[in-house]
Each structure stands twice: as C-alpha cells, then as structure tokens.
C-alpha cells in the first residue's frame, strides 16, 4: 500500500512538472510577443515624424523592449527547448537584429542623446542576426526575418541611404518566400519593389498591380502599392498616370493629404496642357495644400511643411513653380532608381538643361531667379552624377554654393549641394574632402526645410566612408583617420560581432544592474 502511495505522489509530481513546464514555455513565448509589440510601437514612433523629438521618444520607448529581448536571449541560452526552440530562437534573432539595425540608422546627434541610456546599434550584427533567422524558414518568424531584410535592402537603403542595399540577397530571400506564399500580397509588393530599384519599371508596375488584386481585405496595404505606382509612372514621365495615383491616395489614405495634394499638383504642372481649366485646377490644388496641413502632438510633418512652402511660392510668383515633380524625385532619392535605367534618366537631364536656358533668358522677370537657377542646377548635377560625369556635376553643385547669399527662399539647396559634393568626393575616394564637406553641411547650416532628412543622408555617407576606409586598411592601404563615432567607440559596422554586442549592452547594464544575475555575452 505504501509503495502505491509513493508511486501516486511521484506521478502527480511528474504531471505537475509537465504542467509547470508548459506554463513556463507559454510565458516565455508571451514575453517574446510583448517585446515584439514594444518594437513595433517604437518603429511607429520613429516613422510618424522625422524630427528630433520623435527619434528621442522612440529611443526611450525601446528601452523596455531592449530589456525584454535581453531576458529572452538569456532564456534562449540557458533553458532547454524541444521543438519550440526554432520559433523562439527566430523571434529573438529577429528582435536583436532589428533592434541593432534600427538604432544604427539613426543620425549621430540622435545617437548622442540616446547614449545616456546605453544604446548603440551595430549594422553588421543586425544584418547577421536577421540572416541567421531567415535560415529557419519553417519557424514562425523565419519569413518575418526575411521581410525585415528585404525591406531594409530595397526600401530603407534607398529612402534613407545611398542605395547600397544588397539587392541580390533580397531577391534570393524573396524567391524562397514566394515558393511558400506565391500569392502573398506583401511578397508580391517586394517583388515589384526589387524590379523598381533595378530600373525595370514596367515589371514593377505589373507586380504592384498583382499585389493589389490578390487581396481586398487590407485596403491600407493598397496605399503602399499606389505610392509606388505613382513614382513608377513619374519615372516614366507619364505625368497623368502619376497624377491618377496621387488622386487615389488623396481620396483613400489619411496619412498626409497635404503631401498627396501637392504631388498631384506637381504632376499636373509638369503636363503640357496649359488650358484655363488646368490653370484653375492648379490654383485650387495649391490653395488646398496649406489647409490640409496637420499637426501631430503640436508638430508638423516635415514633408508637409515643405509642400506648404512650395504651394505659397506658386501663388506668390504668379502661378509658377519650377520642376516640382523632379524636385520631389530628388528629395525622395528617386534618382538612385533612375540611374539604373539610362533611357529614363535622359529625359530628366534634357528637361533640366532646357529649364536652365529658359530661366537664364527670363532672369529679370522673376525676383527669385537665383533660387530657380540653383534648383535647376542641383537637378542637372544629380543627373550628371548618375551618368558618372563627375566633373560637370561638381561644377553645378559648386555654383550653387557660390550663389549661397543670393538665394532668398529655398535655402535648403545649399546644404544639399554640399552633401552632393561629398558624395562625389566619396566616389573619387577623396576621403579628407568628404569629411570636411560633411562637417560643413552638418554644422554650418541650420533651420532649413527637410533638415532631418539630409542628416540621414549625411549619416549614410559617413557609414559608407567608414566602410571604404576599413576596406582600404584591410587590403594593405595606408592608414586613414577613422570617423569619430557618435558614441566614442568604433563606428557601427566596424567592430567584431561579440565586442559590439557587449558595447551595446554595457550601458544598459550600468543602469539596470539588478536585471541580470550574472555577466554574460549576448551572443548566439
């Protein structure tokens, strides 16, 4: 009888242990889901506005996210898993990789403000962890790791960087996803985006349309496709079709009606139709832009501020605005895509050259002649740069800087021209000149339109310069002075993985000493 009691007690204990283990596993996965929600919340904070305050708020919000991921990583390292491990591991890799990648993209002045909470991001670590996550495609978050990597290489690198994403890797990852989800709207969208950044605009249009047709439940996702279709037709100089999709966005999307209305007016202004009805409609559209401007938490969206500025210029200068569509293509880094397709770039260059001649012929008729002339020069210089005509491009950018004191309203043209000169010097491997020009663009000019957008570009040039210097040194080149990191440590992407991760965690360890019971290296 006694032996039966002991067996019953042992059996009950085993059942309780199994139940407890299941509860622990559920709690562990719930903790990971919580971290993912915090990450998404931080990302939304970053993208809702481009000003410094949003970046700082986003950085503070991900502090808790960071702590949760650190605990999840400890669980991954010290707990025993069975079949659930691949799901948990892919989630941790996605979070750690996405965290590093997101932080590494922030401009230097934002990173300095985040230093006090121990944040730094290593691009190399981020890409490596995400790549490892994609290798477990059967896991729950394996495809999501692929989505993050594809989005980084095809969207982020083109919008915020120097179009230096690994498109071949993105294409390879996408093909693996399409094999499993051939009608997935998200993957069809990325198929269109890859075709677009390769310069295959017609194929991109087909893929975006296919993405729209394959699902009708998530209408907001259609707006992403409309946005890309609008720019695809803009790249083809099909202004009426571009205007059509801008109008669709005006009617259906609530993100920024002022921006959509301004873009619609820009495309209409590029059309050859100069009838009275068209002029009246242009007056109406540009007049609506200031009325549609919105404020979020007391702050204006930078792109809307720019649109309002340009709409007022149109009215002040007798219903006239110079090359507004090409200007928007430049500000949103569209010329990096046009450069992949010479027949598409050629009409833009011819348009800028013709406009320069017209501006010079009527120089006495317009009070902001230098503003118009400088804008046309900037656009021409960018076209020449992408045709590898560096000497002629440098002349265009230099002339803008020479005319700096004569520019009355579009003061943003000068710092943008300085950064373009830095990019030219980077292509010519004149690294000292790159550093001088970047410092000038960053420190000399303040308070101009779309300043934070240019700071992203400056940060991208710094990263590219740092990579070139390290590559030169590793190949036996002469020593070149490294760029000073915003955190006073090796610049993101230049240190080894384990060391950079320790650097990333050390600041937070000092603030949350009680969080970790033992010292450990967060390294898979």
From TrEMBL:
Sequence segments annotated as region (Disordered): 467-524
Domain of life: Eukaryota
Extent of Polar residues compositional bias: 492-509
InterPro entries linked: IML2/TPR_39, TPR-like_helical_dom_sf
Name of the protein: Tetratricopeptide repeat protein 39B
């Amino acid at each position: 009888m006694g032996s039966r009691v002991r067996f019953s007690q042992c059996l009950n204990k085993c059942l309780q242990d199994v139940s407890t283990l299941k509860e622990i596993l559920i709690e562990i996965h719930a903790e990971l889901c919580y971290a993912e929600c915090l990450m998404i919340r931080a990302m939304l904070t970053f993208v809702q506005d481009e000003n410094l305050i949003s970046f700082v708020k986003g950085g503070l919000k991900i502090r808790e996210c960071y702590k949760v991921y650190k605990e999840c990583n400890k669980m991954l390292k010290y707990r025993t898993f069975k079949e659930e491990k691949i799901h948990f591991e892919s989630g941790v890799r996605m979070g750690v990789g996405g965290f590093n990648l997101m932080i590494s993209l922030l401009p230097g002045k934002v990173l300095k403000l985040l230093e006090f909470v121990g944040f730094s991001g290593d691009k190399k670590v981020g890409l490596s962890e995400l790549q490892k996550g994609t290798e477990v495609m059967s896991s729950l978050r394996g495809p999501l790791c692929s989505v993050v990597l594809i989005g980084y290489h095809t969207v982020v690198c083109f919008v915020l960087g120097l179009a230096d994403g690994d498109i071949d890797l993105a294409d390879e990852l996408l093909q693996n996803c399409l094999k499993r989800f051939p009608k997935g709207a998200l993957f069809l969208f990325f198929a269109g985006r890859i075709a677009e950044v390769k310069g295959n605009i017609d194929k991109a249009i087909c893929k975006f349309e296919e993405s729209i047709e394959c699902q009708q439940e998530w209408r907001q996702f259609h707006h992403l496709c409309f946005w890309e279709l609008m720019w695809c037709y803009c790249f083809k100089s099909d202004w009426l079709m571009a205007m059509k999709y801008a109008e669709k966005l005006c009617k259906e999307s609530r993100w920024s009606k002022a921006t959509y209305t301004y873009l619609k007016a820009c495309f209409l202004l590029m059309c050859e139709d100069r009838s009275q009805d068209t002029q009246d409609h242009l007056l109406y559209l540009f007049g609506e832009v200031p009325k549609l401007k919105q404020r979020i938490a007391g702050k204006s969206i930078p792109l809307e501020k720019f649109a309002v500025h340009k709409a007022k210029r149109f009215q002040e200068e007798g219903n006239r605005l110079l090359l507004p569509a090409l200007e928007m293509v430049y500000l949103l880094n569209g010329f990096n895509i046009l450069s992949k397709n010479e027949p598409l770039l050629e009409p833009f260059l011819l348009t800028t050259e013709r406009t320069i001649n017209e501006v010079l012929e009527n120089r006495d008729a317009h009070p902001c002649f230098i503003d118009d002339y400088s804008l046309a020069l900037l656009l021409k210089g960018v076209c020449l740069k992408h045709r590898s005509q560096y000497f002629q491009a440098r002349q265009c950018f230099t002339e803008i800087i020479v005319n700096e004191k004569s520019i009355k309203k579009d003061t943003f043209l000068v710092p943008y021209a300085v950064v373009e000169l830095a990019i030219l010097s980077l292509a010519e491997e004149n690294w000292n000149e790159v550093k001088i020009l970047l410092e000038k663009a960053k420190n000399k000019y303040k308070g101009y339109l779309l300043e934070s957008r240019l700071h992203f570009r400056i940060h991208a040039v710094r990263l590219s310069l740092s990579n070139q210097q390290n590559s030169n040194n590793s190949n036996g080149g002469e020593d070149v002075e490294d760029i000073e990191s915003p955190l006073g440590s090796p610049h993101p992407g230049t240190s080894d993985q384990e060391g950079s991760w320790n650097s990333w965690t050390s600041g937070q360890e000092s603030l949350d000493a009680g969080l970790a019971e033992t010292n450990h290296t967060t390294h898979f």
